[in-house]
Amino acid sequence: MRFDAAPGVVTAGVAVLEDALRVQGAEVTPVAWRPPPPGTADALAAIDAEAPNQRAVARLLAARPFLVDVVPAREAVPALAAGRGLLHAGPPIGWEDASGPLRGAIIGALLYEGWAADPGEAAALAASGGIDLAPCHAHGAVGPMAGVVSPSMPMYVVRDEESGTVARCTLNEGLGKVLRYGAYGPEVLDRLRWMERVLAPVLRAALRRHGPLDVRALGAQALQMGDELHNRNRAATALLLRALAADLVEAGATADVFRFVDGNEHFFLNIGMAASKAAADAARGEDGSSLVVAMARNGTEFGVQLSGTGDRWFTAPATVPDGLFFPGFTAADANPDIGDSTITETAGLGGFAMAAAPAIVRFVGGDVDDAVANTLAMYGITLAEHPAYQIPALGFRGTPAGIDATLVVRTGVVPAVNTGMAGREAGTGQVGAGLVTPPIACFADAVRALAAIGSGPGPGPDRGGSP
Fold this sequence. Notes:
- Strand 11 (301-306) and strand 12 form a beta hairpin.
- The protein is an alpha+beta fold.
- Strands 6-8-7-3-9 form a five-stranded mixed beta sheet. The chain has a four-stranded antiparallel beta sheet with strand order 12-11-10-14.
- It has helices spanning 15-23, 41-46, 50-62, 73-76, 100-113, 119-127, 186-210, 215-223, 234-250, 255-262, 269-282, 343-346, 361-364, 368-378, 405-411, 440-453, and strands at residues 8-12, 27-31, 65-72, 85-88, 132-135, 141-142, 154-160, 166-170, 213-214, 292-298, 301-306, 314-317, 322-325, 338-339, 382-391, 397-403, 417-422, 430-436.
- Helices cover 36% and strands 20% of the residues.
- The relative contact order is 0.17.
């Protein structure tokens, strides 16, 4: 022990002691730690997930997702090929419990498909049980914000070349008054129809000319250019457009197509979401593993799934993000957290990569030190560092990847998530963006369930193709 150096003190949870020590000139290192939730000690003691977790996270890190096609949702998702079905973000939910933005997106989708003539008829149809609702995650897909997918909507198809896992996601509409934020006015429907009839066919033709596009390589480059690939996709969108520009021209793309992509800095987001879903799904089905393979919100509940607990959701009430609001809106206008886009954090991006994107704080609030601190904290609840996704500001350290639910519960540190905010009332659209604190209760419930199943070695099921 050395006595010739100034003392260093680690504090946990008591700010007044931290402040008092600093006043006295002590070097203080605050730690975000809380005791585990009540009733989890026995479950944590019963779980021995080291070997299963190493197998599961190895598949997550090895994933090489490629963008391979753009097709109508009825072709991408067999469940949408017949009848009147819609997919939505987050854990399962019905119309009666749906939030305002999810209801708005459902209404918009019914109008878009021609299944209802006006918003009132659409709401009545949904309330009567005349529409089959299912989570995107249950069908190898993800959807941003409300995440509503209807049969005619075009979807990206992404395949992990290592495991064969396939994931799908719709095309990005942009910000503001858009369907995924619960808006359904004429301008929203006109944009969706243009995307279906003009944008999607030319993207499909260009991609087929180009061949499969390496999404991981593109995302890795974008991280080193200042993106975090959830709420900042400026570099990734530019790189995507550059990669496909010649093929788009040869496929007959008009100036409107280039203007739309150029004016939508979130255009890459949906591709990145599908790539993250393909990587996370490759890690599913490992008996005894506490690796988180899905985090998602439906505007009412926040839910998680673990590799070792099958398709079961563990949920708790969703919270309202804290951040910056568009002019004319306040926290009273914001709906609780919603969307499947937290699949990016599940794969080691988004809030986990904020240190790579200091400019993100201008969109979600906080300062640059907060962005770095968020990333550093996530190393304490993850199983690995991503070999491809690296952060220049941290000496090209890999992003923290592979959330371990047992570490979340042991430390009390929850995943860092940055997100957009939807208006509470159906039809409002986006009202802002910020950071959200996931409820630890769903991680605690997942850990208890994993302990009840019993941990142990064993290979997972075949993950090829679709679920």
